[in-house]
Design a protein that fits this description.
- This protein is α+β, with helices and mostly antiparallel strands.
- The protein has one domain: 2-Layer Sandwich (Alpha-Beta Plaits).
- It is built from 6 helices and 8 strands.
- The strands form 2 sheets. Strands 1, 2, 3, 4, 5 and 6 form a 6-stranded antiparallel β-sheet that branches. A two-stranded antiparallel ribbon has the order 7-8.
- Helix 1 packs antiparallel against helix 2.
- The chain is globular.
- The two termini are 14 Å apart.
Length: 181
Amino acid sequence: MPHSLVLNILPLAQIPPGYLTGRHLHALFLTLVSSVDKQLGDYLHDAAADKAFTLSPLQTKKCPFKKHHSLQWEHTEPIPQYTPCWWRITLLDDSLFGKLTNLWLNLNPSKPWHLGPTDLSIANILGTPQPEQPWANACTYSQLFDRASETNRLIAFSFATPTTFRQGKFDSVIPTRDCVF
């Protein structure tokens, strides 16, 4: 079942733009995973493992409500201390969400997490859409199948941030059928 989670985060110090890149956010995600399941964190870190998750860049603006509005994908300036941020994590593997349930349920808001030189406080994790935050949600694969059209075989989707797909040892920006599905 695809799960789209939104973490509401507060930086306890300024975050320099050099630490707002994909590899630093990837490291933060793996740190969160390893805090509840070290073996799973190591497995997801392994270059040969399928990466059945996506990570958005850190967002500092209010959630866009327009259907095709892009999210922030680059920070050229530091994020100031105490600027409310949100971060979307999408889990595409049914078992991954279950393995991380202890993290979502037992997250200690007073425990700081590190993003480069900055401590972050995770205020909460949303798993269902909220009026002010529609990017959190979940849907089973059977629900996706049931909602599919019997006749229309065209699928329209858009990428809200720059996206790459891992193909073996290489990353590709081309959303081929095999990469997407």
